[in-house]
């Protein structure tokens, strides 16, 4: 049995290729079904995110696996091996185990230590459970990886200093205002970055939030989660004066908040300070806004120093995390190797039981035909002993004849004999 991890990620492939190889939610069930039809595949998990597409597999044998699985992946997505192979990586057994543990712990992420990947790995695992596409070894590996990720979070500071733009924006706001709890915060946009910002703010006790977005339905989903009010982009001009902090991240090609809009808001606020954090590219807030009195405008570039400082702290924690992964992957491989022993022991016991049953049946038949029971039992014990020790005796003779002292001692130890 072989464990295999193969795929592409942000380190090996450009976004154009990652898009081609991604498994959308509507494709996962079919992909798992087709994977299990491939030669030697006993179980599989498909992990597909914006930064990686990976297959985690247990195989009966690795013979021709690389060629077959590459062909399957290319055929499934309608791409050529020539386009895929330069970006494709393969990890087998111990390296596959270590790779999954690093992925689940955020050590292989674009943003070092980010926590979202663990949820994505758990979701991929759950989908494989639902589709009955897990082997016992894969199930054990994923469960172990989840506990390793938890240990990394608990025993290191890998997640103590977030390095996302969203968290940096919240950090900046907390540095400028003594408390965010009683401030009114306007969030412009409802994409992934603003979602993270909203959750961070909620965790820090913010009670008053407004979410402005072009699509109200999307904003309402987020608003329900963080207990915020929803307004349209057109309402910003009328409601901007209420905001102590504005954090904006949309995909708009043109600024949404202009200098005149902010001037009107500041007049209504009677020059009460306002913090604006623009983390959109292109920018959502006109640059001239920074010239206004009592208005503090920061862009995504201004957040770089916060991110750089926190990233340095995360890199230090990552050293500790890598040690945990190395230790835990070693433990898992010890368990995996022991499973081969369990199988061998089971076969050995089944063989011995078959010999016992066969000889007992013959002995009982002899007694039933009138043979002397005492003689039958003595003959049974002798024959049973000879049959059971035949193979070990042959191995001992071969080891002794070859002068293989190491093997001889190993056999003696296995048979419960003292070493010579």
Automatic annotation (TrEMBL):
Residues 320-416 form the Tetrapyrrole biosynthesis glutamyl-tRNA reductase dimerisation domain. Keywords: NADP, Oxidoreductase, Porphyrin biosynthesis. The keyword GTP-binding does not apply. NADP(+) binds at residues 189-194. The keyword Cytoplasm does not apply. Residues 6-156 form the Glutamyl-tRNA reductase N-terminal domain. It holds the Pfam family Shikimate_DH. The record marks 99 as: Important for activity. Residues 172-306 form the Quinate/shikimate 5-dehydrogenase/glutamyl-tRNA reductase domain. InterPro entries: 4pyrrol_synth_GluRdtase, 4pyrrol_synth_GluRdtase_dimer, 4pyrrol_synth_GluRdtase_N, GluRdtase_CS, GluRdtase_dimer_dom_sf, GluRdtase_N_sf, NAD(P)-bd_dom_sf, Shikm_DH/Glu-tRNA_Rdtase. It is an enzyme of class 1 (oxidoreductase). It catalyses: (S)-4-amino-5-oxopentanoate + tRNA(Glu) + NADP(+) = L-glutamyl-tRNA(Glu) + NADPH + H(+). It comes from the Bacteria. Pathway: Porphyrin-containing compound metabolism; protoporphyrin-IX biosynthesis; 5-aminolevulinate from L-glutamyl-tRNA(Glu): step 1/2. GO terms for biological process: protoporphyrinogen IX biosynthetic process from glutamate. Catalyzes the NADPH-dependent reduction of glutamyl-tRNA(Glu) to glutamate 1-semialdehyde (GSA). Possesses an unusual extended V-shaped dimeric structure with each monomer consisting of three distinct domains arranged along a curved 'spinal' alpha-helix. The N-terminal catalytic domain specifically recognizes the glutamate moiety of the substrate. The second domain is the NADPH-binding domain, and the third C-terminal domain is responsible for dimerization. Belongs to the glutamyl-tRNA reductase family. During catalysis, the active site Cys acts as a nucleophile attacking the alpha-carbonyl group of tRNA-bound glutamate with the formation of a thioester intermediate between enzyme and glutamate, and the concomitant release of tRNA(Glu). The thioester intermediate is finally reduced by direct hydride transfer from NADPH, to form the product GSA. Homodimer. This is Glutamyl-tRNA reductase.
């Amino acid at each position: 049995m072989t464990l295999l991890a193969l795929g592409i990620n942000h380190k090996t492939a450009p976004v154009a290729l990652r898009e081609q190889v991604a498994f959308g939610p509507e494709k996962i069930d079919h992909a798992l079904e087709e994977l299990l039809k491939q030669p030697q595949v006993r179980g599989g998990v498909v992990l597909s995110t914006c930064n990686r597409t990976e297959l985690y597999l247990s195989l009966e044998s690795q013979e021709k696996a690389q060629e077959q699985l590459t062909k399957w992946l290319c055929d499934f997505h309608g791409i050529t091996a020539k386009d895929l192979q330069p970006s494709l990586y393969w990890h087998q057994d111990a390296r596959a185990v270590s790779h999954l543990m690093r992925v689940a712990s955020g050590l292989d992420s674009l943003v070092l230590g980010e926590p979202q990947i663990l949820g994505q790995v758990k979701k991929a695992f759950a989908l494989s459970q639902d589709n009955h596409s897990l082997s016992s070894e894969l199930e054990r590996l994923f469960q172990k990886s989840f506990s390793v990720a938890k240990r990394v979070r608990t025993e290191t500071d890998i997640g103590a200093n977030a390095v996302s733009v969203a968290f940096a924006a919240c950090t900046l706001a907390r540095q400028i205002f003594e408390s965010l709890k009683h401030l009114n915060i306007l969030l412009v946009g409802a994409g992934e970055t603003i979602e993270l910002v909203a959750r961070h703010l909620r965790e820090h006790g913010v009670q008053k939030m407004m979410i402005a977005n072009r699509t109200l339905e999307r904003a309402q989903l987020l608003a329900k989660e963080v207990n915020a009010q929803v307004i349209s982009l057109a309402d910003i001009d009328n409601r901007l004066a209420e905001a102590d902090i504005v954090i904006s991240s949309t995909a708009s090609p043109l600024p949404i908040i202009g200098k005149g809009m902010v001037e009107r808001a500041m007049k209504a606020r009677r020059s009460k300070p306002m913090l604006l954090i623009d983390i959109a590219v292109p920018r959502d807030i006109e640059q001239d806004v920074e010239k206004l009195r009592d208005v503090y405008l920061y862009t995504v570039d201004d957040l770089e120093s916060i991110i750089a400082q926190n990233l340095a702290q995360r890199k230090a924690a990552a050293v500790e995390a890598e040690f945990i992964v190395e230790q835990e992957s070693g433990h898992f491989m010890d368990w995996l190797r022991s499973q081969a022993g369990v199988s061998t022991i089971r076969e050995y016991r089944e063989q011995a039981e078959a010999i016992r049953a066969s000889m007992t049946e013959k002995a009982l038949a002899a007694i039933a035909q009138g043979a002397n029971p005492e003689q039958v039992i003595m003959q049974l014990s002798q024959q049973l002993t000879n049959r059971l020790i035949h193979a070990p005796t042959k191995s001992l003779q071969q080891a002794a004849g070859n002068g293989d002292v190491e093997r001889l001692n190993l056999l003696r130890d296995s048979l419960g004999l003292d070493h010579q």
